[in-house]
Design goal:
The structure holds two protein chains of two kinds. The mean pLDDT of chain A is 93. Helices cover 32% and strands 4% of the residues of chain A. In chain A, strands 1-2 form a two-stranded antiparallel sheet. Chain A has helices spanning 5-14, 24-38, 73-77; strands at residues 83-84, 87-88. In chain A, a hairpin with a 2-residue loop joins strand 1 (83-84) and strand 2 (87-88). Chain B has 15 helices and eleven strands. Chain B has helices at 9-18, 23-35, 48-64, 105-112, 157-164, 181-187, 221-231, 275-290, 306-321, 342-353, 356-369, 374-397, 423-427, 434-439, 468-482; strands at 43-46, 74-78, 116-121, 170-175, 190-193, 213-218, 261-265, 294-298, 402-406, 443-450, 456-463. Chain B has an eleven-stranded mixed beta sheet with strand order 1-3-2-4-6-5-10-11-9-7-8, sandwiched between helices. In chain B, helix 2 packs antiparallel against helix 3 (48-64), helix 5 (157-164) runs parallel beside helix 6 (181-187) and helix 7 (221-231) packs antiparallel against helix 15. The relative contact order of chain B is 0.14. Chains A and B meet through helix 1 and helix 2 of A and helix 9, helix 10, helix 11, helix 12 and helix 13 of B. Chain A: This is Aspartyl/glutamyl-tRNA(Asn/Gln) amidotransferase subunit C. Chain A: Heterotrimer of A, B and C subunits. Chain A: It comes from Yoonia ponticola.
């Protein structure tokens, strides 16, 4: 399957990665090569096969529905590029 | 006085208990070795103060006579593990400056056992790569050398290089598609990826969560057994961690494999595989046979589809896991232009912070998960994954105890050799290892011979789920028979 530059642009947008226009054709051709490789999977008969959800089947453990953590605002914010007054700061989202 | 750099974990443990050497002496000698090994670019963050503090505490514990096996053992820690207050960047620019406020479960367990952290080790960015060439720190270099500088493999390239060059007694690695076993094979070291769920993933930067497992990289099988045991165990903070008792793996190393059934999968004979890899595999088969094992030809019919399934599932999970790098909570944030909103912040931050291979995989993952393609790619890959696991289930149900394969399709290649190849060529490095991750099985790489240029070659053994002890014992028997003792000549 061949990926065109418009599809490459759309995927980059969905992935929230800025790709300059002049880099799109090369990216599209790399995608095409990788997807071509992946398309071998179409040769496999998967009729009636359940998609794997867990490689080592086990029941998820349960625990009491109680608070076990918290009160760590300083630590949570310690690595933020921009933290102010106890919050993460980001560019304006709502006008 | 013994040459400290030649010690193994087991040897150092015994020497420290006898009082022949202290952890402080051992640690200092490794710190000196690291200082002199800048050319290998294996250690990318140095933590000598932490190391000396831990070594002193370890010596006190050893003197008190109640020290675990890993007490006082100097280790390197892959940069993928979060270590409290110490840079943990997954070799990515996007985590520049990130110093976790917490300690991963694996490193917590190792440090609780008294181990010493010498520093953080180079790797491929977010563990995506097979040559350590996608690292923001630059390439790690293989201590084995033929003319040109060679890759130590990847993604745990720094770990492999450090162990092979005697810069530490052991190192943590992680393995999503072969990232412990391929670098071990390229450097003449031993590395085991345990059963999925054996080792907690908590605090290990996530790549593909359904495939990622941590494991030890060491100088020999005994050391892998000792270090693996210290890393294993149930962790309530990882919901996929198995609540199972951890056996004494070292005690399993009897070397007796009489009557064990070893499977040789016909699908692992690849077209174009170098003759010396075929020969190594044959030789390894004979060694196990001579040690009393029964050799049986087996078939794993879906092997061919493992790599394509992996290159759907791993990028899909990566695209989801790496969504957290948004320039808000940690790491890098791009400088914004006037008028830029939050979307521009995400897009610029991620374009600047992620290297090309990581960007490629995130975008491939985004594509295969996008509306209209989810069933065709992602669900189909998960079905093929189920079939790959079934192949192994059938073989094990028929009485096979372990499977012997080559670890890699070639010896270590030159750094830069794959620069102009398309990404698939690099992916083919993992052709023998990736099936094991997809099936969640334990796998170990053991050095078993040298190629015509004197470079190490490894064999892989694949075990039954949760039976790492048995697997380590077969590996031990192979190690004894192969008698691999070669070391790289020091040039760095």
């Amino acid at each position: 399957m061949s990926i065109d530059t418009e599809t490459a642009r759309r995927v980059a947008k969905l992935a929230r990665i800025k790709v300059e226009d002049d880099a799109l054709p090369a990216l599209a051709s790399e995608f095409s090569a990788i997807l071509g490789f992946i398309e071998q999977l179409n040769e496999v008969d998967v009729e009636g096969v359940e998609p794997m959800t867990s490689v080592t089947p086990q029941r998820l453990k349960r625990r009491e529905d109680v608070v076990t953590d918290g009160d760590q605002q300083d630590k949570v914010l310690a690595n933020a590029p921009d933290a102010r007054e106890g919050f993460f700061a980001v560019p304006k989202v709502v006008e | 006085m013994t040459d400290l750099s030649k010690l193994t974990i087991a040897g150092a443990r015994d020497a420290m208990r006898k009082g022949d050497v202290s952890s402080v002496e051992l640690t200092q000698s490794y710190l000196n070795a690291i200082e002199g090994a800048g050319a290998l670019n294996a250690f990318v963050h140095h933590t000598p103060e932490i190391a000396m503090d831990q070594a002193k505490a370890a010596d006190a514990r050893i003197q008190a006579g109640d020290a675990p096996d890993m007490c006082g053992i100097p280790l390197g820690i892959k940069d993928l593990f979060c270590t409290k207050g110490v840079a943990s960047q997954a070799a990515s620019g996007i985590l520049e400056g990130f110093k976790p406020e917490y300690e991963s479960t694996v490193t917590t367990q190792l440090f609780d056992a008294g181990s010493v952290m010498l520093g953080k080790l180079n790797m491929d960015e977010f563990a995506m790569g097979s040559s350590n060439e996608t690292s923001v720190y630059g390439n790690a270099v293989n201590p084995w050398k033929v003319d040109a500088e060679l890759t130590p493999g990847g993604s745990s390239g720094g770990s492999a290089a450090a162990v092979a060059a005697d810069l530490c007694l052991g190192a943590t690695g992680t393995d999503t598609g072969g990232s412990i076993r391929q670098p071990a094979a390229f450097t003449g070291t031993t590395g085991i990826k345990p059963t999925y769920g054996r080792v907690s993933r908590w605090g290990v930067v996530a790549f593909a969560s359904s495939l990622d497992q941590a494991g030890p990289m060491t100088k020999d099988v005994r050391d892998s057994a000792i270090m693996l045991e210290a890393m294993c165990g149930h962790d309530p903070k990882d919901s996929t961690s198995a609540d199972m008792a951890v056996p004494n793996f070292e005690a399993a190393l009897t070397g007796d494999i009489k009557g064990k059934v070893i499977g040789i999968p016909k699908e692992y004979h690849m077209d174009g595989m170098p003759e010396e890899i075929e020969k190594l595999w044959k030789d390894g088969t004979s060694m196990l046979k001579d040690a009393g094992a029964e050799i049986r030809d087996i078939s794993l019919p879906h092997t061919k589809y493992a790599l394509p399934a992996y290159y759907v599932i791993a990028p899909a999970e990566a695209s989801s896991n790496l969504a957290r790098y948004d320039g808000v909570r940690f790491g890098h944030r791009a400088k914004l232009d006037a008028g830029d909103g939050i979307t521009e912040m995400y897009e610029k931050t991620r374009a600047e912070g992620f290297g090309p291979e990581v960007q490629r995989r995130v975008m491939v993952g985004t594509y295969v998960l996008s509306a209209g393609f989810y069933d065709a790619y992602y669900n189909r890959a998960r079905k093929v994954r189920a079939l790959i696991k079934q192949d192994f289930d059938k073989v094990y149900a028929s009485g096979v105890d372990a499977i012997l394969t080559p670890a890699t399709p070639s010896p270590a290649f030159a750094l830069g050799a794959m620069k102009n190849a398309d990404p698939i060529q690099m992916y083919l490095n993992d052709v023998f290892t990736v099936t094991v991750n997809l099936a969640g099985l334990p796998g170990i790489a053991v050095p078993a011979g040298l190629d015509k240029n004197g470079l190490p070659l490894g064999l892989q053994l694949i075990g039954r789920p949760w039976e790492e002890g048995d697997l380590l014992n077969v590996a031990y028997a192979l190690e004894q028979a192969a008698g691999f003792v070669a070391k790289p000549a020091k040039w760095w």
